[in-house]
UniProtKB/TrEMBL annotation:
MF term (GO), any: protein-arginine omega-N symmetric methyltransferase activity
Catalysed reaction, written as an equation: L-arginyl-[protein] + 2 S-adenosyl-L-methionine = N(omega),N(omega)'-dimethyl-L-arginyl-[protein] + 2 S-adenosyl-L-homocysteine + 2 H(+)
Protein name (record): Protein arginine methyltransferase NDUFAF7
Subcellular location as annotated: Mitochondrion
Pfam family, one: Methyltransf_28
Function statement: Arginine methyltransferase involved in the assembly or stability of mitochondrial NADH:ubiquinone oxidoreductase complex (complex I).
Cellular component annotations (GO), alphabetically ordered: mitochondrion
Top-level taxon of the source organism: Eukaryota
Protein's organism: Lupinus angustifolius
Similarity remark: Belongs to the NDUFAF7 family.
PANTHER family listed in its UniProt record: PROTEIN ARGININE METHYLTRANSFERASE NDUFAF7 HOMOLOG, MITOCHONDRIAL, PROTEIN ARGININE METHYLTRANSFERASE NDUFAF7, MITOCHONDRIAL
Alphabetically ordered keywords of this record: Methyltransferase, Mitochondrion, Transferase
Main location: mitochondrion
């Protein structure tokens, strides 16, 4: 039986996202971010900033001087967000290139795919590093493909990479949704690399809701109210296949394995003190991983993103920040339904869930399978703090200020790197 609920999550909204029929939360978020005409990334090519010059960290006194420098840059450009790869160019991209070079199989041409390439700074930095440090045959035979959903950002990427003429024939941008299987023409059987920097946080998520601690999860839809100007949530029993798979992979219904006595106590407590539950599901990430593992079965993956977000106002596990920036200052919405194409919607990444989904999509972790099996994993994965990744593969001495403060290592404590490579286990 469907349930509706409006307050306190009703929001004034132009009616171009939710029309006559309800839509899933993931479709609402996808449209708010990526719709060709009114989506946040589609209409705001300047949502991702490009620094005109490399920051000379060794000329800054310390943290205070660095923050003042950044504040001035943000005010001058009215940019919503400078990515780490932009702030620390070229060193951030060089570290990723070094990680690739240490483990790449150079007996076959190097193929790199980047999902959501932003301003193209990462692509240019990686290609620069390989041109300077790899054998000439590796650079000459390499290809770098950016899969970018935003036409305006795709054009920025072409301009950025095109600053080095020899990169141009090796680089191409495919303007499409990487999670759409129809955009991938064929299965790539050769080893390749996939890079995703600050991509997972902007992937559409779904939302499930439960009235109390033991009630079943229900999927959340968004619909227009009768006045046609406000939105409300609609709850339906789980039926969407992607949501259902995600709920099972995350094992949200852990109560099934509890004893009868514990279940009875929970049942009594849920009636005495009912506590509604809301859980955000990374269904967009699951869909993307399913497609990538199908079309790039021998891919190695490097992903970096937020492991947590501070001061989130929206309720629920793994809830997003919905932030807009006007006149140089940011403000956060209290409901995801307030996003009107003028706000970024970004989520924290639970990297253990990412690892579990990665194993599942590779075909190793099958639900309801015999977990006592001796079969080997198909992926070898490692999770690193950003500072650890940069110390291992980068040149952190390049980003030290005069007093020893190093924003590359000392900041971004809420970001991590996830590396996943195929093993030789074929069972």
């Amino acid at each position: 039986m469907n349930q509706v609920w409006a307050s306190p999550f009703q929001a004034l909204y132009s009616t171009h996202i939710v029309e006559n029929d309800p839509i899933l939360v993931r479709d609402f978020i996808h449209s708010a971010l990526y719709h060709p005409s009114h989506g946040y990334f589609s209409q705001r090519s300047r949502s991702v900033g490009v620094l005109p010059n490399t920051i000379k960290f060794n000329q800054l006194q310390g943290r205070k001087a660095y923050m003042k420098y950044l504040d001035n840059v943000y005010k001058q450009s009215d940019i919503s967000w400078f990515t780490p790869v932009e702030l620390f160019k070229p060193w951030y991209a060089h570290a990723i290139a070094e990680a690739i070079m240490r483990t790449a199989n150079f007996s076959v041409p190097l193929k790199i795919y980047e999902i959501g390439g932003g301003s193209g700074t990462c692509a240019k930095g990686i290609m620069d590093y390989i041109m300077m440090n790899a054998p000439a045959r590796v650079y000459n035979s390499m290809t770098y493909t950016s899969v970018e959903i935003s036409p305006s950002l795709a054009e920025v990427q072409r301009e950025t990479v095109g600053e080095v003429r020899s990169h141009i024939p090796k680089f191409r941008v495919e303007c499409r949704d990487a999670a759409d299987r129809t955009g991938w023409e064929h299965v790539e059987q050769q080893p390749c690399w996939v890079i995703m920097l600050e991509v997972l946080d902007n992937l559409p998520h779904d939302l499930v809701y439960s009235d109390n601690q033991i009630s079943p999860w229900m999927e959340v839809w968004v619909e227009r109210q009768h006045d046609l100007e406000t939105l409300r949530e609609l709850y339906k029993p789980l039926q969407d296949p992607l949501i259902t798979r995600c709920v099972e992979i995350l094992d949200l219904d852990k109560t099934k394995s509890t004893s009868a006595a514990v279940s009875t106590l929970k049942s009594i407590w849920s009636k005495l003190r009912p506590k509604p539950r809301r859980s955000w599901l990374p269904t967009g990430c699951l869909k993307l991983l399913e497609v990538l593992h199908e079309v790039l079965p021998k891919m190695s993956l490097i992903a970096s993103d937020f492991s947590y977000l501070p001061d989130v106002k929206i309720p629920g596990e793994r809830a997003p920040l919905v932030s807009t920036k006007k006149d140089g200052s940011s403000s956060d919405y209290e409901s995801y339904m307030e996003a009107k194409g003028d706000a970024d919607i970004f989520f924290p990444t639970d990297f253990r869930i990412l690892e579990r989904m990665d194993h599942y999509c590779s075909g190793w972790l099958k639900l309801h399978s015999d977990h006592s099996s001796k079969k080997g994993k198909k992926r070898r994965t490692i999770l690193l703090e950003t500072s650890s990744f940069m110390e291992e593969f980068g040149l952190p001495t390049k980003t030290i200020t005069k007093d020893g403060y190093n924003p590359l290592l000392d900041d971004f404590k809420n970001t991590k790197f996830y590396l996943s490579v195929p093993t030789h286990n074929t069972k």
